[in-house]
Write a structure and sequence with these properties.
Elements (H helix, E strand, L loop, with lengths): L3 E4 L2 E6 L2 E5 L1 H7 L4 H4 L18 H13 L5 H7 L4 H12 L10 H13 L10 H4 L19 H12 L10 H7 L3 H13 L2
Antiparallel strand pairs: 1-2, 2-3
Helix pairs in contact: 1-5, 3-4, 3-5, 6-10, 8-9, 8-10
């Protein structure tokens, strides 16, 4: 398990090999290659690429490790993650977690249905409410490795839900996301993703 703690601007990430102290300034210097997709400050302009500004440091480290060891597969991200060591991952995570996410708006035609699903789920089909893990404001739970999803691009969130539903993404603890996503309709995925994009 990876745990994080922020102390005087530094982030400490417990990785497979021990605690790595993350330095935001070092992370900024190392983030140049990341900017092409995620933006210089972690705010992606392409809705198919995630904004990672303000994401929990431990979660960023965990995902980079997953790309490196093959638990999560993406040709571009795997290639980027392979050369990173524990210190690199901790530094990048410290930098991006310290950045501010640019607020976005939700599609008003989908947001109402998305909010109902986010807050109440769909008991008839076994879809759990998103608030159970990601919180009412979508800020997640750092200690439990539940990521911040508020303000994420709707297109990216929808894509990840579909990958979970198809079993192509399997980094979720106890298959929680796979179980939820596989029970969702395409309309539900679109609606809740739109609502998440507008969460602040």
């Amino acid at each position: 398990m990876i745990r994080t703690a922020a102390v005087i601007g530094l982030t400490f990430c417990l990785t497979a090999t021990g605690w790595a102290e993350g330095d935001p300034e070092a992370g900024q210097a190392k983030a140049t290659p990341c900017a092409a997709c995620h933006g210089a400050d972690g705010n992606s302009v392409n809705p198919e690429w995630p904004s990672i500004a303000g994401q929990h440091a431990g979660y960023i480290v965990k995902q980079l490790e997953a790309y490196k060891n093959g638990d999560r597969v993406n040709a571009l991200m795997t290639a980027m993650a392979m050369p990173l060591d524990d210190q690199d991952r901790a530094d990048l995570a410290a930098y991006y977690s310290s950045q501010s996410l640019t607020p976005k708006t939700a599609d008003p035609e989908l947001a109402e249905a998305g909010e109902k699903l986010y807050r109440g789920g769909n008991p008839a089909t076994g879809v759990a409410a998103c608030t159970a893990c990601h919180g009412p404001t979508g800020r997640g739970v750092p200690g439990a490795m539940m990521p911040r999803i508020a303000g994420q691009h709707a297109a990216y969130s929808a894509m990840q839900l579909k990958l979970y539903a198809a079993g192509e993404r399997s980094t979720d603890k106890d298959q929680m996301m796979r179980n939820v996503a596989s029970a969702m309709s395409e309309a539900e995925i679109a609606a809740v993703s739109a609502y998440i994009q507008g969460l602040r």
